[in-house]
Amino acid sequence: MQGTDIGEVAKKAGVSRTLIYYYFKDKMELIQGMFLEYFEAAKQFVGGALITEESPLVRLERYARFYLETAVTKPRRVILYRNMINDMPIVFGGQSQAFYHTFLDNVHGSLIRTVEEGIAAGLLAEVEPRLLAQTFMGGVTGAMLELAKRQLSEDEGRALADQAVGVILQGIVKSPA
């Protein structure tokens, strides 16, 4: 963020520096807007992926697959996401905790509800739902970061994403009695 130059941003966006300043008073406001736009996009994706009538397992697989395939096809986006969490205190100052918790509630709330449904249906391990959701998310995040740092063809990446999705889901599915 510190090395970001508004002139470079304008050039990459194909607009004038003046136009950027018409919408944003300074670089920090531009970056805050970017963060908030990302948070809203994540909320919309998660809602669409997890709030459906499908089986919780289908929804969780779609959720994991999306993020893992994004790591393969758009690795820079994954690195940006990882850095966003660390940069929140710089971007939002004293409000960073509130923004972070709102983001988690919006994104992880749907995940927790899906996990609760899976447990109630006897599909997922009988583990405290928040812990199981975080365990699932930890697997997805770890695999995302690993895939993002590799130089993979789409075919190689999809094969590894398939393996990771299988391992992640296998870890949270209820074992036969």
- Average pLDDT confidence is 89
Q: How many structurally independent domains?
A: 1
Q: Portion of residues in helices?
A: over 70%
Number of helices: 8
Order of helices and strands: HHHHHHHH
| Beta-strand residue percentage | under 5%
Radius of gyration: 19 Å
Query: What is the CATH homologous superfamily assignment?
Result: Tetracycline Repressor, domain 2
Alpha-beta content class: mainly alpha
Label the overall shape. globular
Protein name: TetR family transcriptional regulator
GO molecular function, one term: DNA-binding transcription factor activity
Keywords: DNA-binding, Transcription, Transcription regulation
Please provide a written account of the structure.
This protein has eight helices and no strands. By secondary structure, the chain is mainly α. It has a single domain, classed as Tetracycline Repressor, domain 2 (Orthogonal Bundle). The protein starts with 5 loop residues before the first helix and ends in a 5-residue tail after the last helix. This is TetR family transcriptional regulator.
Short description:
With 177 residues, this protein is mainly alpha-helical. The protein is built from 8 helices and no strands.
